[in-house]
Amino acid sequence: MAGRRMSRSSTVVAIDGPAGSGKSSVARAVARELGFRFLDTGAAYRAIAWLVLERGGSTDDEPTVIAALEGLDVDVTVDAAGQRVTIAGHDVTEPIRTERISAAVSGVARVQAVRVAVNERFRAIIRDAEPGIVAEGRDITTVVAPDADVWVLLTADEAVRIRRRFGDVGGDHQQVGASLTARDAADSTVSDFMTAADGVTVVDSTDLTFEETVEAIVRLVTEESHD
Q: pTM for the complete prediction?
């Protein structure tokens, strides 16, 4: 279903959903299929979490997280080659994908000052994206891009999400499951990502393959473009 599109020539696809739902990999594949740019908004939160931990701090301490914003030079670049994340010129695209960061990022994401700061950057990236962009992450359908052309809530049963996350990161299955459940609980304190807002289409991938999930979202976009 279409969003409240503002005056622009590009197409914006916004995808939200719980941890382990496959938002990043699905959104990246959708962008590739459509020839659009791709934005993983969670990368900025992960970059800040990485910085806090590198400095020996804890993301559970809000003053420490806010202090990390002072003079912060985080850059998220989106181009045909993909997305790169740097802090003060240092590429952290790969380091921020570890389970250590996954376990710590909720502490950053629930700090309102952080959310306000990074959302402004996201909106600028989305505004300048041609011919279109697939943006995924928390609050993307309701706060960051409420005027998107297509809104999607990508979800799956918790057991399926845990299995998929374990397949991505490995390690101890029980620990991965506990981490995912804890992240859902922490994230839900700042965002209702399990309930579709008005105009948001739910894509439940529990019984879908990766390819079928991508196809379902691509179909939504192409149908919207022909309305």
A: 0.77
